[in-house]
Amino acid sequence: MDISEERLEIFENRLVQIRKLLLGMLLLAKDILRDRLKEDSEVLRIAEEAEEAFIKSSPSDRFQEIENTLDIIQKRIAAIFRLLEETGKNQ
């Protein structure tokens, strides 16, 4: 199956949009839940690491860049899940 240049670009753009939306969700969740989390909590550290994750740009290998974007998306989703899980435990 051949992937056209146009379809690949659409896919890359969607991944970037998802990555950015997840950063916004992560920041919002962290801000809302900050009072419930201990300042030195492991969950807060995980959230901050996911927040600071960046793409290691690889202009010569588009698929490597896609893989890096997916890694960041996975890290941010896991951090959001941990924030919500920790909050549920503290209620």
Question: In a few lines, what is going on in this structure?
Answer:
The chain is mainly alpha-helical and 91 residues long.
Q: What are the secondary-structure elements, in order, as H or E?
A: HHH
- Helicity level, as a percent range? over 70%
Average pLDDT, rounded to a whole number, is: 86
Overall geometry? elongated
As residue ranges, the low-confidence spans are none
Structural class: mainly alpha
Beta-strand proportion: under 5%
Number of helices: 3
Q: Report on the biggest sheet.
A: none
Q: What's the β-strand tally?
A: 0
Question: Rounded to an integer, what's the Rg over CA atoms?
Answer: 16 Å
Measured distance between first and last alpha carbons = 50 Å
List the SSEs and their pairings.
Blueprint (H helix, E strand, L loop, with lengths): L4 H29 L8 H11 L9 H29 L1
Helix pairs in contact: 1-2, 1-3, 2-3
Give a description of the structure.
By secondary structure, this protein is an all-alpha fold. It contains three helices and no strands. The protein has helices at residues 5-33, 42-52, 62-90. Helix 1 (5-33) runs antiparallel to helix 2, helix 1 (5-33) packs parallel to helix 3 and helix 2 (42-52) packs antiparallel against helix 3 (62-90). The longest helix has 29 residues, at 5-33.
